[in-house]
Design brief:
256 residues, Rossmann fold, six-stranded mixed beta sheet, 9 helices
Length: 256
């Protein structure tokens, strides 16, 4: 049964730390269809075309095509170092959007709500924050990097046993029909250890399985996974930048 609590306002961001290694991370590409998504609904634009406001699809979609904005998603298991990578990219001048879930958790905890992820409305708070952050960045930069996306939120809902809400359905339809994000998704692999935080209460084995659930969700929705192996953050960032530069030089289209 859905609770009737209002999701608190979202506030700042807490950092993750990287880990040292000496080898350059390998980049591997997995194409759609290489796996399956256990039990989660797959939303295609053709199935949900009548569920989102037409104005959102037509106006913004046309603008994005004209501006040629490339929005890249970073995903992976908790504690893999995504935020460290994102912070380095931001320091180098790239436009970035922080993860939403950690901020929503922090806001609810501050309001005295322990384990906010146990409430179904927690998912809607994440979806709303993700949408606002993407819209706020808009066309401000031609290359943008996002710490997770609504596809991650879909995997999270499945992991927590929450139903897929209308808000999540609408947002997935929007990002698919408008091709908001690049089909190439950077999957940041585990560092091999887990640093617990107030918002991250998960074991290393569970975090790896949680990451696998994200892989399945992205593949089921037509995305391609580019794996970024464990390595120092600066090397991981260089791998991502090289891949993005090669992609843009070859003018790879949005179609999968």
């Amino acid at each position: 049964m859905l609770d009737n609590r209002q999701a608190p306002a979202v506030r700042g961001w807490s950092a993750l730390s990287g880990a040292a290694a000496m080898t350059l991370p390998k980049v591997s590409l997995i194409k759609p269809g290489a796996g399956h998504f256990d039990g989660l609904p797959t939303f295609r634009p053709s199935e949900l075309v009548n569920t989102a406001p037409l104005s959102a699809v037509t106006v913004e979609g046309i603008v994005e095509k004209v501006m040629n904005v490339d929005r890249f998603i970073l995903t992976g298991p908790p504690g893999a170092g995504k935020t460290t990578i994102l912070r380095q990219l931001a320091e180098e001048g790239f436009a970035t959007a922080d993860e939403a879930a950690t901020d929503v958790i922090a806001a609810w905890l501050q309001d005295g709500i322990d384990e906010p992820w146990t409430y179904p409305s927690f998912v809607d708070g994440i979806v709303e924050t993700q949408r606002h952050r993407q819209i706020d960045l808009g066309n401000s930069a031609r290359i943008q990097f996002y710490d997770r996306s609504p596809i991650c939120t879909l995997a999270l809902a499945e992991w927590l046993g929450h139903p897929v809400s209308d808000a999540l359905r609408f947002e997935i339809e929007r990002i698919c029909s408008e091709r908001v994000y690049r089909p190439e998704v950077f999957f940041v692999r585990s560092l091999g250890f887990m640093t617990p935080t107030e918002a991250r209460r998960i074991s290393l084995p569970d975090s790896i399985r949680f990451g696998e659930l994200h892989e399945e969700a992205y593949l089921a929705h037509g995305f391609k996974l580019i794996h970024i192996d464990s390595a120092p953050a600066v090397q991981r960032v260089e791998s991502i930048k090289r891949y993005v530069e090669d992609l843009r030089q070859r003018s790879v289209p949005f179609s999968a």
